[in-house]
Records
---
Amino acid sequence: MIIHLLTEKPQRFGEIKRAMHPISQKVLTEQLRELEATNIVTRDVFEERVLNVTYSLSALGKTLSPVLDAIYNWGETNLPLDGQSS
């Protein structure tokens, strides 16, 4: 879900956390660190009046977009909605 959120635009930690409610701060931090360590996500720090950190997809991370789209499309086609069986 983090990768999906970041395909739209770079986001700050709080924005990601709100979109993934009820994820804990600890779990989100761990996931972002793992994605950063594997070069999927880039962490950009801007030293302004208030420290500003944004997360975005790296070039490698952007290559996952077609894969995620394909999985989403497969699910829309093959998985039943509202507990209905096919």
---
Amino acid sequence: MSDQAGEIVELFSSIQGEGPLVGIRQVFLRFYGCNLSCAYCDTENTVPPVYCLMERTPGRRDFVREENPVSIHQVLGLLGEWQKGWPGIHHSISITGGEPLMWHELLLEWLPPLRELFPIYLETNGVLHTALSKVIPHVDYISMDIKLPSTCSGQTLWGHHRDFLRIAAQKNIFVKIVVDNGTDQREIIEASEIITEIDRNIPLILQPVTLKTGNVGITPLRMLELQETASNYLAEVRVIPQTHRFIGHL
């Protein structure tokens, strides 16, 4: 097994708070770094972490600090203990960030042994399609964002998202779009058309942005209007907020 190590922010057990698998228990392995800068981002990615916070007991928040970079042996050792002590509580392992595909070379080595323990659930901003093409044989579920220009510093990423989705559609995938009162209906149409080009049955999750106050940043009427727009193109459009933000940090 490779000794290649990675910059890990945290490893913990919690409830998935977003998307169609909301409510399931997962292991979360959070990688440092992101290639985008989104207005609503709630994850610190500007300073490389000196330490990785590793939860010793699943869900108990008894974190210990391990110096970065972290090896796959450290991760597998801890998860092996969890499997023995708490068998069957985890549905899958969420590979998240930041943007974990920035670490695709490392993931090529890490995902196979991790997948022997849990199915792999990749959370991604849906841009790095070349990186995805390399690791996709080792992935089971994909939570793919489509980043709208209005919420991603004006960046236009439609072509990248289209290329990414063509590859990701091989797997069990859903697309997530964070929306607020400033979301333009034309952005939802563009995103819906991209999904329809690949498969109109791919679920689309419209996620109301969560403000620092804990409230959502979109009116109920505007939320329904955006859902109606997307439903003209797609078979399944759901509105699911960040549930973990409402019931407390898990």
---
Amino acid sequence: MDNEQTEKPPERPIDRALQFLYGRINYERQPTGRGLYPFRLARMRRLLRELGDPDTHYVVVHIGGTKGKGSTSTMVAAMLTAGGLRTGLYTSPHLNHLGERFRVDGVACGDEELVDRVAAVREATERMEQDGKGSATFFELTTAVALLHFQRSGCQTAVLEVGLGGRLDSTNVCHPRVSAITSVGLDHQHILGDTVAEIAAEKAGILKPGVPAISGVADGPAREVIEAQAHHVGAPVWRIGRDFEVQCHAVQCHALDKPSPNEPFSSEPWGTTFDYRSHVSESPDRLGWRIPLEGEHQGRNAGVALAIIDALAASGGPVVSLADQRRGLSEVVCDARTERFDLRPTVLLDAAHNTDSIAALCDVIRRRRGSQPVAIVFGTSHDKDAAAQLFQLIEATEHLILTRFHENPRWRDPAEMAAIVEGYVANHPANQRVTVEQKTLPTEALQRAQQAVGPDGLVVVCGSFFLAAELRPLLLASPAVASPT
């Protein structure tokens, strides 16, 4: 009887597929110093040849950037799907299931499909490695899985989000119809470079000869680097602020006009309204369009996405009607991007994890909070600039609860972050109003934040995809978590 009780359940095909992938070197879990990342494109190209070049069977849109590339990729894919085109979307990292990285018409890759794709990629990988081409990494394998999945699913178009940088990213073996760089900021400096110009050079590595390049970078050294590289390879550039414009409408919400401590945050209208005008395409202006994502940065991302759609049509690619563009944007869903949970208190879940994305999140908090108290739950990776993020967050809250995630070894010690905050507050007396606490478990941090602000307040969870991944299932499934006693 004891033997029967301790017997392990039989291993499922999906378990074996995931073991194969996660058994490879995974730089999402093992950050190291610059120069030690053996990124090469030759191995990726060989792997795709072994698979029959699946990426040549559909029109590709390639999107990179420091901030906004995931949201922009999702918006472009949503518009293409709304236009009747079977569309693949490859993003990373995933929140809870690997299949989330590989979506077709918004639907994540299922276990049965994933097993089939991984089996084919595994066979191709073993043939390649027998020829002495070296071991493929986790991200190379998942990129191959994505491209194969889109082919076998009959996709007509595919939107590929760059994983890291651009020049040597595994996705950069594709031959896109349009390329885009949403933004450039300081992130992943230990790999990409210490300055914005150096990082821009890596991101501009995705630009291809004759392929329209959409740039969300309006000025500064990053713009100069991107446009110099575009000129070098012969890629025509559509730049925000020159070739197309995006203007977001001022937020009109009750909490800002007439703050009421009895009015819960969640009752306010949500989303962003914007105007888009193009000066280089024949498409009409899009005025007063709305997306269900909050923040001026999301309105800007929508503008870049519309420029991509315009460039596709102008280059002889797929054409999406204005009605389908508007419908696709109005229905877009981006998990963990200022994602609102209408609980009591309201919870905002955001995967912001660098200085620029935290700044955008803080802007949303300031615009939307009204008179409600705010508590922020923050946890980040040890390779991120925690100080720069924390200094911004302190200005936007009364309660800061520092925590860590547990499913990835890159977590930053909450005690170390608390020391950073204490040093900052000591030199900025106005911020002594902020209470700072530490909780090892994210669930405890969330519950403490909810208790701190009460049922009509606002809780913001941010700092990492990994933290969002650990807390999002609880927010989705358990109202009890959102209503502590």
